[in-house]
Amino acid sequence: MLKAISDTLRLHGRGINLSALQISDAPFATPAVLALAYAYQQATEWRNSARARLQSLGYRNVEVRAGDGYKGWPEAAPFDRIMLTSAPPQVPQALIDQLKPGGKLVAPVGDSLENQNLVVLEKDAVGRTKQRSVIPVHFVPMVPGK
Predict the structure, then answer these.
(1) Residues 21, 94: contact at Cβ < 8 Å?
(2) Can you give the pTM of this predicted structure?
(3) Which domains does the chain have, with CATH numbers?
(4) Which residues lie closer than 8 Å to 115 by C-beta, 6 or more apart?
C-alpha cells in the first residue's frame, strides 16, 4: 500500500525534485523506503529508529522529528507532496495549509477501521482544493497530541 501511495504522489522519477512530508503512527512506514525530505514519526522511539535506519542507508536529505502529526511541520512548509500512513477522521487543515499550490496530499481518512478510504487531495494554483476517494483501506488511526 505504501508503494501505491508513493506512486500516486509521483515522488520518484527522472528530474523530479519535490519537497515531501510523511506523517506516520506506524514504525514500519519508514521514509527510507520512499526517500522523502521530511518524515514525521509521531512516537519518539520510532523517530530514533527511523533516523538510525536512514543514516545507515546513506540518506542525508531526510529530516525526522516526533510530535503531533496533526500540526504538520510548518517550519519546513510548504510541501509539494504530503503522505499520511495513519488515518485521521478528516484531513487536518494544518496539513492542507502546508501544501503548496499545485501540490498533492494522499492519506487514509475515516473515523474507524471499518470506515476508511484512501483520499487524494489536490490544491490548484490559486489554493482551491479538490478531494476524491480512491479505494477503501484499513490503517491505524492517527492520534492527535502525540
Answers:
(1) no
(2) 0.79
(3) 2-11+18-136 (3.40.50.150)
(4) none
